[in-house]
Structure formats: structure tokens, C-alpha cells
Specification:
By secondary structure, the chain is α/β, with parallel strands linked by helices. The chain has 17 helices and 25 strands. It folds into two domains: 232 residues, P-loop containing nucleotide triphosphate hydrolases (Rossmann fold, 3-Layer(aba) Sandwich); 236 residues, Rossmann fold, CATH 3.40.50. The structure holds adenosine-5'-triphosphate and magnesium ion (MG).
């Protein structure tokens, strides 16, 4: 790709960008949120049209008219946001548009199609039921289906736009072994990720971009993580684990959960949360952490259990009730539960605090704009204006809007479910700083995170879950990755 240029209204997203990719290599593409990574990949796959520049593919000029043509030419993409249909089965999602038919093409051959999917999963070492409805799977599993779907197309180029954001460590290992296998078959891969350790594990070269500009390309084994970060943000960022809890021993309990049961994934969960505390919830994906928080928040029905807020029994039958009790919940699935992507940054920011901005039935527009503006600045949300539709923001910046929404609501108890998923290293440390400030102000925070360094860096205390139960509780001063893994894999 040579001198690629692209503008959106109010944004110069790509400024004469160069990028090249060799057969059989894994090439990392890194840069801060909004740097233009996804845009460049959408141009390569014909989703967006470039304003100027050239693409050469297999020695020829290449002008994909759309993703379908790119796919036919052997270029496939796994998008940052999941793009599948919940109500269809796993196999139907994989073979959409190229279904197995029977009776001279008159009827869908569900059985043959499931069998094809089963073979594909077997080949990829994935344990997924082809006949299951996609919506029943966790985000991580859905991501695996999307990967299988891409692989099933016999690609020459596979683009993976933050594929591991929702995967557990074991799933990441599986993905990497699939990638190594594809590389042996001479498939070239472009790998976008904000996780620096992954870059060194899986890629051969790394290209850094900043603000739509090309910064440089290096052999991965010849650069350090710190050097890559410095190319990305122009400064060095340190990440140290927390040494000891910041919560005083006599801090009051603001939330107490006793014997919570819900669905199949929440079994007899009990814990308490103190003022000023950041309570980490560690575990593998599928451990029941999100389900626990959804039940607590009234988003799913709980079958039994007692919830107390500030020492008084709380009856939470739906999220509105939870919000009234001062609980905020930042969903891990921002697209589905966290945002109204067809509305503006401003509308989304104040969405959880509507009543605070009303007076005698009128919306206080000036105050709304001021507040939204303030938080957009604090969180460094990259957007041409507050009127920009959220769907047009980069993935990481969408996540920041979800965070702004709950900060503006000013809840006393905040549940952050994978808060920094898809957030670049620079913005991540800003969000960490902000969470620490909130705790210092006396808010109580629950943080679900599948990234162990993040759990160890942020938490004052850590609860570990496995298969719907709490299997361990660790004080930050004696927690480490081995301890967490020990409890996270303790199947009864
Ligand atoms: N359809 C669109 N309309 C308007 N602006 C857009 C559109 N798509 C992207 N942009 C803007 O282009 C810039 C680059 O966005 P892009 O999604 O490529 O970033 P990214 O590097 O993938 O970031 P992230 O790591 O957060 O995913 C951003 O400022 C974004 O808001
Ligand atoms: Mg992106």
C-alpha cells in the first residue's frame, strides 16, 4: 500500500501511509486509539474507498470494490467488533451466503453444513457445537467462530483487528497456534493489537503509525516493547504492580452480596466491597464473572441471594433499580450493551444521567454540552465534535465514551467489566489513574479483568472465580500470577 490518503468529515484519518506485507509473515500494525489502523485495513478490504494512493497485490494494481471482492481475491478480515448474527446457529454464521444445499439446491442441508463446521473446528482444535445458536456463546467463543469462518475461505491474506481482546489466555494460545499453522501455509497476516507482549510472541515485523502517519517498520526481534511504545506515543510508560492495598482496615462495607445464584453460571457467590476499594475479579473467560455482575445489576434474573447496599437490603429487579441504588455497570460488550452507536458522543455520555439534566421537563442543553465536553477532554476522546455519531469513532474511543457515561452518572459503586479492552497503552494508564482517583474520592469499584498484569496493578484485593464459584480471595500483597491461575483453574 503506497501513499494511502483518507479523509472523513473533520478527520484526516490517513496521511500518505505506506505499508507492505510479505508472504507467510505475521506483521503487527500498532498505534494509539484513532491512529488509523482499522481505516487502513478497511481500505485494503474494499470497505472504504481511499482518496488517493495505490494498492499492489500479487504484483498487480488492486482496487477492491467491496469486501466480497477482496474475499474472492483471498483477503479476509476479522473485525474489531463482532459482526455476526446471534439468532443463527454457529454453522449458519460460518457458511452464510455459501450454504450446503440438498434436493438440487432447493433446501438447506443443515446436517451437511453442521458436519462441515464440525470438521473445520476439529482441524482448528476448537471445541464448539456447530448447531448452537451463536448468541448463546460467550464473546470469546463468538470470536473463535469468526476466526474459523475467515480461515474457511482459503485466504492469502488474513487481517486480525484486535482478535484477542475478548479471549482468555488458553484461547489466545490456541489462536496463536492456528496463526503459526497458517503462516506455514504461506498465508500472510496483519495483526492489530494493543497488547505489547503479544507482538513479540507472534509477529515477525511491526509497523507503527501515529495520527494517520507512518512512523516506521522494524523486525520484531530487534525492538523492545519500550521502543515500540515510544514510537507509538512519543514517550515511555511504566507499568508497576500495586504493592499494598490502599484501603484502610476500618473502611465501611458499601456492598455485600450473600449467596447469589443466577442461571447456570452463578453459584453461591458471596463477597463484600469497601469504600475506596478496587476489588479485582480475576478468572478465565466463562468463569461467571460477567454473569455475577449482570445478576447483581438486575440485568439477569437471580434465583436467590441477598444484596445489601450501605448496610440496607437492596431489591434489584432491573438495571434501573440498580442505578437508583447508586450502582453503575460498564459492560464488557460495548456495542451490544454499552452504547447507542447511532447516537452522538454527547447523547451517549449523558445517557445514564438523563434526569440530572432536566429541569421542569426541559433538557438543559448548555449544561449537557459542558459536561460532555469536560469528560471528553479528561478522557482524551478523539472525535471531531461532540455531535459525531459514536459508530464513527475508533474502537478504543468508543470504549472511552462508555466510561464517560458512568463517570458522569457519578455512581458510588462502579462495576467495570474489562474496562481497558481495546484501549491503547497511553490511554490505559490515564484510565488507571482515573480509577485510582475515583477510589481515593471514596467510590467503590469492582473491576473484572482477564489481563493478569492489570488485575495485579489495580486491585486492592482480588476475588478469583472458576465455573461460577468464587474459588479464592487474595490480598494484593500476596497475590501473583501463579496464585491467581491456581484458583482460576480450581474446578471444585
Ligand atoms: N466512518 C467514519 N466516519 C468518520 N470518521 C471515521 C470513520 N471511521 C474512522 N473515522 C475516524 O478516523 C480516525 C481513525 O480511526 P480508526 O478506527 O482507523 O483508528 P484505529 O487506529 O483503528 O483505533 P483503535 O485502536 O481505537 O481501534 C479516527 O479519528 C476515527 O474517528
Ligand atoms: Mg481500530
Amino acid at each position: 500500500m503506497k501513499h494511502i490518503d483518507k479523509r472523513f468529515k473533520g478527520v484526516h484519518a490517513l496521511k500518505g501511509l505506506d505499508f507492505d506485507l510479505c508472504e507467510g509473515e505475521v506483521h503487527a500494525l500498532v498505534g494509539e486509539n484513532g491512529a488509523g489502523k482499522s481505516t487502513l485495513m478497511k481500505i485494503l478490504t474494499g470497505i472504504y474507498e481511499k482518496d488517493s494512493g495505490e494498492i499492489h497485490y500479487l504484483g498487480k494494481m488492486f482496487h477492491p470494490q467491496g469486501p466480497k471482492e477482496a474475499l474472492q481475491m483471498g483477503i479476509g478480515i476479522i473485525h474489531q467488533e463482532l459482526n455476526m448474527m446471534d439468532h443463527l446457529t454457529v454453522a449458519q454464521n460460518i457458511f452464510i451466503g455459501r450454504e450446503s444445499m440438498k434436493m438440487k439446491g432447493l433446501f438447506l442441508d443443515e446436517k451437511a453444513q453442521n458436519e462441515r463446521a464440525r470438521k473445520l473446528f476439529e482441524q482448528l482444535n476448537m471445541n464448539i457445537d456447530p448447531a448452537e445458536k451463536l448468541g448463546k456463546l460467550t464473546v470469546g467463543m463468538q470470536q473463535m467462530v469468526e476466526i474459523a469462518k475467515a480461515v474457511s475461505h482459503n485466504l492469502k491474506v488474513l487481517i486480525l483487528d484486535e482478535p484477542t481482546a475478548a479471549l482468555t489466555n488458553t484461547e489466545i494460545d490456541e489462536l496463536f497456534s492456528i496463526m503459526r499453522k497458517l503462516a506455514q501455509d504461506q498465508v500472510a497476516m496483519i495483526y492489530i493489537s494493543h497488547r505489547m507482549d503479544e507482538i513479540h510472541r507472534i509477529t515477525d515485523r511491526v509497523t507503527v503509525m501515529r495520527d494517520g502517519e507512518y512512523i516506521g517498520t522494524k523486525d520484531t526481534d530487534k525492538v523492545t516493547k519500550e521502543e515500540i511504545i515510544q514510537m507509538m506515543v512519543g514517550r515511555v510508560i511504566y507499568e508497576d504492580p500495586k504493592q499494598k492495598s490502599n484501603v484502610p482496615a476500618d473502611a465501611e462495607v458499601v456492598l455485600k452480596v450473600t449467596g447469589l445464584n443466577a442461571g447456570r453460571m452463578v453459584k453461591d457467590v458471596s463477597f463484600s466491597l469497601h469504600r475506596g476499594e478496587i476489588l479485582g475479579f480475576a478468572g478465565l473467560i466463562g468463569a461467571g464473572r460477567t454473569e455475577t455482575m449482570r445478576a447483581l445489576f438486575g440485568a439477569d434474573v437471580s434465583t436467590s441471594g441477598i444484596i445489601e447496599v450501605n448496610g440496607r437490603r437492596a431489591f434489584i429487579s432491573d438495571p434501573m433499580a440498580a442505578v437508583r441504588y447508586g450502582i453503575g455497570y460498564l459492560s464488557e460488550d460495548r456495542k451490544r450493551y454499552g452504547l447507542a452507536t447511532g447516537l452522538s458522543v454527547e447523547d451517549n455520555s449523558i445517557m445514564a444521567s438523563y434526569e440530572d439534566f432536566q429541569k421542569h421537563g426541559f433538557m438543559r442543553k448548555t449544561q449537557i454540552t459542558e459536561t460532555a465536553q469536560e469528560y471528553a477532554e479528561t478522557l482524551k476522546i478523539k472525535t471531531p465534535s461532540l455531535d459525531q455519531l459514536v459508530v464513527n469513532l475508533s474502537g478504543g474511543n468508543q470504549q472511552k465514551v462508555v466510561i464517560a457515561k458512568w463517570l458522569i452518572r457519578n455512581s458510588d459503586i462502579l462495576i467495570f467489566d474489562e474496562p481497558t479492552r481495546g484501549i491503547d497503552v497511553g490511554a490505559k494508564s490515564e484510565i488507571y489513574h482515573l480509577m485510582n482517583e475515583l477510589a481515593k474520592e471514596g467510590k467503590a469499584i469492582i473491576m473484572i479483568s482477564s489481563e493478569m498484569p492489570e488485575v495485579l496493578r489495580m486491585s486492592d484485593r482480588i476475588m478469583v472465580m472458576c465455573e461460577g464459584r468464587i474459588t479464592g480471595e487474595l490480598d494484593i500483597c500476596d497475590a501473583d500470577q501463579e496464585q491467581i491461575m491456581h484458583y482460576a483453574t480450581m474446578n471444585n
